[in-house]
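Q: what sequence does this backbone want?
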């Protein structure tokens, strides 16, 4: 009996102890304050779906934001930066927020302070690129942000070093000055006159990528290198063709969402970093048919800026963050940031980007190159990883308008090679948009007006476009729906190792520090979209109708041949991609204090692409604004 009583008492005591411990731990967990992100999201329309508990959970997992805070300047310098990428809203264009990601804990703040004490603030000279290991999270707390934003250096360097071994580097560097800033016509003339070969041209580009992109100031614009480009170039040298196409032998780099049969295509995500598609994208076929050589792929804002609002412009989980070559303190903008860098730094003869809304035009302006977004539908986007297939448009980023024209002719299968005209602005009415920073009567704006007038144009000032707030809200909601549907279809048709957006979201959680360093809230918002195809089509048709009417009415009422917007802002840059109008960005000058590139963007009627390129060419020949970046530690 006594033994039974002892056993009963022990059981009761044990039960109370276990229950009490569980209740205490539960109360401690639920009462602990929730950690909030120190990076604020950009202001977006409230109609964007964000009410899922899973969405909130996913946003916290791997956001890794506790060491960062938002700042609006660098001492007495101000960045002209906004989240102006694949998912740009008209509201964010006008706000044009400035920001920098800055470390704040004690060790990293001290490291940053030490780095800033050096002249011109350079990246560390040694960076250890990380490798993906889904079962292990990479430590990030102890390293400066520059270190953890440069991944897999050997992925680019191994095929470069292997090919440069067969070349005389000293001879290449002796001829390098011939290539810097050269347009296609000059390059072809150098080869025709035996001052250069296609093999040497490709070698010079590879050597420049090695020196300045993967080493030196480490711009991080290149993600893949064609391991046989030197052999391909040598073959063209040996063929000695006559009547060569304009792009014959010209090395081209492609944004990393453009499909290729020999190189991986990833849209910047770790989940697809080794995926080689079974066929080339339609535009790659056209480039190859015209004799162009695919040199490699360029870094981009992951998923064309559809990953998370906290992701910096030009950052991908695959390769890390790319830099603006004009200053490490300037934003490269996106999402075709790597293509813009490759063009402005002479890493290739031609770079190709893609635009949904602003993704060619904005990085071109930020990095002082020519960026051309053709009229919707004139260039095929088949074989390109989609953000929204109804809006996605590939286009060139080049150092001159002529090169953009020659490349566009190939992409559009345009047989005409009529030279562009310096007189194309004569008797043209050009409307100067006044709803962004172009309002300020700066020296650059004065020069823009003077150059347009000198070229023969009549400048109509004070042009305004209506701010269409509902278009902002509906457009973002539409992109969420389009991205989910179009991506799933694309992945399945092309037999991707990841067949759905949902599987990619799950993969990212396996190593959040690398796969989703800044979160993936936009991916989750798209996955949560319930808009049907018919509903999406109806919304898209309405948005296209509204934006076309707005642009058409201004062009017609003012009898304008084109609208011009100075700087990276301006509602025309938000409306034109939705309406399907062509856009052409051209360097307009540089800020005297910060060396920040300034740009000018022309927008004309739909399907007037050649006329627009002609007007841009006439402006370029009068203004002659562009200067090459200085690729030294800055």
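A:
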């Amino acid at each position: 009996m006594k033994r039974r009583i002892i056993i009963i008492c022990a059981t009761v005591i044990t039960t109370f102890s276990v229950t009490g411990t569980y209740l205490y731990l539960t109360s401690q967990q639920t009462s602990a304050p929730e950690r909030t992100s120190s990076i604020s999201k950009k202001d977006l329309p409230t109609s964007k779906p964000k009410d899922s508990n899973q969405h909130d959970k996913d946003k916290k997992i791997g956001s890794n934001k506790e060491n960062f805070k938002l700042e609006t300047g660098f001492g007495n310098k101000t960045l002209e930066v906004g989240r102006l990428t694949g998912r740009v809203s008209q509201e964010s264009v006008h706000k044009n927020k400035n920001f920098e990601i800055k470390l704040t804990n004690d060790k990293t703040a001290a490291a940053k302070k030490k780095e800033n004490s050096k002249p011109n603030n350079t990246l560390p000279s040694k960076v250890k690129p990380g490798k993906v290991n889904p079962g292990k999270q990479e430590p990030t707390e102890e390293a400066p942000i520059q270190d953890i934003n440069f991944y897999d250096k050997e992925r680019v360097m191994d095929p470069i070093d292997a090919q440069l071994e067969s070349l005389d580097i000293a001879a290449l560097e002796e001829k390098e000055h011939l290539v810097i800033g050269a347009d296609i016509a000059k390059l072809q003339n150098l080869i025709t006159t035996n001052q250069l070969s296609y093999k040497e041209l490709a070698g010079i580009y590879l050597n420049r990528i090695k020196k300045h992109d993967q080493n030196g100031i480490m711009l991080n614009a290149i993600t893949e290198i064609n391991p046989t480009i030197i052999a391909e170039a040598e073959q063209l040298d040996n063929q000695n063709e006559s009547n060569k196409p304009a792009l014959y032998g010209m090395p081209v780099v492609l944004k990393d969402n453009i499909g290729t049969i020999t190189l991986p295509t990833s849209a910047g995500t770790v989940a697809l970093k080794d995926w080689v598609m079974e066929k080339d994208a339609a535009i790659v076929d056209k480039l190859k048919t015209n004799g162009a050589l695919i040199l490699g792929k360029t870094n981009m804002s992951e998923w064309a800026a559809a990953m998370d609002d906290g992701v910096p412009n030009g950052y991908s989980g695959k390769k890390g963050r790319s830099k603006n070559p004009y200053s490490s303190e300037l934003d490269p903008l996106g999402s075709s940031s790597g293509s813009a860098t490759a063009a402005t730094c002479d890493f290739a003869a031609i770079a190709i980007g893609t635009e949904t809304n602003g993704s060619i035009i904005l990085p071109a302006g930020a990095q002082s190159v020519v960026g051309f977004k053709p009229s919707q539908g004139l260039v095929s986007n088949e074989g390109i990883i989609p953000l929204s297939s109804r809006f996605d448009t590939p286009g060139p980023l080049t150092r001159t308008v002529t090169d953009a024209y020659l490349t566009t002719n190939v992409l559009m299968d345009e047989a005409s090679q009529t030279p562009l005209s310096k007189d194309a602005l004569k008797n043209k009415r050009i409307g100067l948009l006044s709803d962004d920073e172009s309002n300020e009567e700066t020296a650059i704006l004065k020069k823009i007006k003077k150059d347009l007038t000198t070229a023969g144009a009549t400048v109509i000032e004070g042009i305004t476009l209506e701010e269409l707030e509902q278009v902002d809200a509906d457009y973002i909601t539409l992109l969420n729906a389009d991205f989910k549907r179009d991506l799933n279809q694309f992945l399945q048709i092309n037999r991707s190792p990841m067949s759905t957006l949902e599987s990619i979201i799950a993969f990212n959680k396996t190593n959040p520090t690398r796969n989703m360093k800044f979160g993936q809230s936009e991916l989750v918002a798209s996955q949560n979209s319930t808009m049907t195809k018919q509903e999406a089509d109806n919304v898209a048709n309405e948005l296209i109708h509204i934006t076309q009417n707005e642009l058409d009415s201004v062009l017609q009422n003012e009898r304008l041949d084109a609208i011009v917007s100075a700087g990276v802002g301006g509602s025309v840059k938000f409306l034109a991609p939705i309406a399907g109008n062509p856009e052409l960005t051209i360097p307009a000058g540089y800020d005297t204090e910060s060396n920040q590139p300034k740009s000018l963007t022309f927008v004309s009627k739909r399907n007037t692409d050649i006329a627009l390129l002609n007007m841009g060419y006439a402006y370029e020949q009068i203004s002659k604004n562009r200067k090459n970046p200085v690729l030294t530690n800055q």
